[in-house]
Amino acid sequence: MRDALPELGVQGRIGVTTGEVVTGTEERLATGDAVNVAARLQQAAQPGEILIGSETHALVRDAAEVEAVDPLALKGKAQTVAAYRLVAVRGDAGHARRVDSAMVGRERELRLLADAWDRAVSERSCHLFTLLGAAGVGKSRLAAEFLGLLDEALVDQGRCLSYGEGITYWPVVEVAKQMAEVGPDQIVPETIGAVLGDRVVSSSDEIAWAFRKLPEAVAAEAPPVCVFDDVHWGEETFLDLVEHVADLSRDAPILLLCMARPDLLARRPGWAGGKVNATNVLLEPLGPEETGLLIESLAHLDGGLRERIREAAEGNPLYVEEMVAMVRESPGGEIVVSPTIQALLAARIDQLDPPERDVLQRGAVEGRTFHRGAVQALAPDEPQVAARLTSLVRKELVRPDKAQLPGEDAFRFRHLLIRDAAYDALPKSTRAALHERFAAWLEEHGSDLVELEEILGYHLEQASKYQVELGGGEQAVAARARARLAAAGRRALLREDFPAALGLLERSLALVPATEMDMTLEFDRTMAIFFGGGVSDAYAAARLVEQRAAAIGEPGLVLVARVREAWLRLFAEPEGASVELTSLLEEVLPVFETAGDDFALYVASSAGAVVANNRAQVDAALEAYELALLHARRAGLPHLEIPLRSGLASARFFGSTPFADVLDWIDDEEAAGGRHDFLESLRAGTLALLGRVEEGREVIARLRSELVERGALLSLALVLCQGVATLELDAGDAAAAVAAGEEGCRLLEEAGERGWLSTGAGHLANGLYQLDRLDEAEAWVDRAAELGASDDAVTQMLVRQVKAKIGARRGLGEEAQALDREAVAIANGTQMINAQAEAYLDLGEVLELGGRPEEAAAAVEQALARFGRKGNLLRAEEARSRLERLR
């Protein structure tokens, strides 16, 4: 206002003070002592000057630059009034942290923080610094002191929620929104969209990659500090994201400052361990002398009281600050020293006036950060919510905070322990009612929250829990909580955040009445376990589901459970599992069709597709996958469509669908559902086989680079040893194929993966054979044979084809030819047209090496015919050239 008024030819004089006023009277807009003092300050100001009172200065001292002026003698005031001339406001005043007391001790820790920052800036690198310590020991205070020393850094802050189970990206979204305000425009559509949920992403590692690009881009403007508080409550996927940024950020000065309780190391013993760019610092309680100094800095107390506080505090700064605050607020200074911080906080809250206590407790229902509108909704009979909140700010129990919801004022408990003490004082019946009412308010006002389902699910879950504990329980509330948690769990499945999905789904299942079963949720739970890497655990869980279904006595549920169990047995105990599942599907399909149960038909169709795929009957698998897709849509369960995408793509690529049609399908699929790593890998291979080799190389190179950037090592391994290796073999660059195959197989071995490694080893052996490195090729083909399952048609073909070619080169004519004819027989038993062609082409090579050119030509003719059916232009040209040479 001061800066704008001169444009109007006016030199404004402005006075600001802080205090309670009465509003809404007919005579005046506002009345009260604060209005009178502000008017007197305004009159005392010079033209173009802003004067602020001492109360205002106390609130903004960390965000404002001021100059003291001589105390003012104001009309109506017996004593002079302190005032300050406002010179400037530093940064974003809304984010300024107040320093409640002088920092005592912590010089060593502050030096370590400063050193980490200096190293990050000078080396243009990312440093992960974690402050560990018990509640109230001073982690936030130390962080505030450090951040106050930084001049040019961009500080962005996020926190993990104490009720954050399954709420993976809350702190990430907080930081991303702040960075978007200052970051370069070009990062907003590409990167912010992935983090904020504005566009579909394929996996949690893509979200980690997208978030990493934010501080890297912002670093071009100024070095960023990303502060994550209460990290011990973070989901596993969030912790992975933080370590991803720390490990993979390049050429950008970034400090990741995390604050956590020591519980974090119990969950993640290797957190930051062994990293040259990471530091863990444990904050110990203050020593007796330091505690005494802190007390002296806060208040002058008599010796006995000071000593009792020092002994009870046991070095906890929060205890000292709250105890001194309680002394100040107690009439006559009479005080009983509480034995623990929890007892102290409870006593301090009990000391509040009832209306203030009620407002504080209703804020505690929302969480550490809460909104004024929510408090008003939970206390509809309280006419002075805003005034009560202002009083609580003055008493330093809460602070103003940045709102998460538009059009709202937000507040934050000064410490989570204060929030817990306020909440714990509520009776369970009151908690149940307030959680349900808050959910209704948030449903109306929180539509912009990225993780709304998770938060609503939590509050409804709490309401249901307390109702049950009180001997009642409304099924309607439990059902609403179940639906919200299930929706959140399925959304986590879509982004491949399997730990979060499992936790949310299990919480949803816990709300199902004991006499019922929700089979769709049970299926989702086994999916989260399976894709999270627990194949055997998923199989065991499916067996338990079947037993419970049998106990309930629902025949339809039992049949679905049996199919799911047999399906998962294919991966856990494969011997004989395919035959068992085929027989079971023949039994149950008529029952499901008669019932018209789309979910059951989805389960059966998907299981049938997996059986067909294992037997390399890929066209049959395609039909089954498409039928499963139809039933998923009819059942209204879109999250079940996602696992089908890879199957639908793979069946088209390896089956009889011409490659030109495969490419069109991939284009349509990605246009409708977003880009997907597996589809991009198949796109590259398809382009190459259509003769557009350089385009295929560009696609696979871009995908490879992105996977490296995202740290998606398992996906990278598959792309290398199958996508890149096969593309380069088809294109005739065996050296590039071998380099990619060796790296991919190494990554698979390090991950302990065996199924994909067998096929990757076969492709690597084929590349080594092309380079005349026969001994190495033989070693890798033997490895493929060792790893490959007996019913793994692709691996069994590859093993025989490569062994036959090696044998032919070594003069084992008849033996080599017999081996390759076995490969042809296996291929002809499949619906993999391209694989059949490759088997015939290799047989032609073996026969030619064995001196039988006419038979070789006949084999190559068979290959050429199949390449033609598949539309494989690249390999057809190779077969045609070979055929002309043979003739």
Describe this structure as you would to a colleague.
The protein is of the alpha/beta class and 887 residues long. Helix content is 63%, strand content 7%. The strands form four sheets. The chain has a five-stranded parallel sheet, with helices on both faces. A four-stranded mixed sheet has the order 1-4-6-5. A hairpin with an 8-residue loop joins strand 13 (398-401) and strand 14. The longest helix has 20 residues, at 475-494. It starts with 13 loop residues before the first strand and ends with a helix. Residues 92-99 have low confidence and may be disordered.
**Gyration radius over CA:** 34 Å
Distance between the termini: 92 Å
Within the largest sheet, what's the order of strands? 8-9-10-7-11
Mean pLDDT: 87
Major sheet details: 5 strands, parallel
The level of helicity is 55-70%
Low-confidence stretches: 92-99
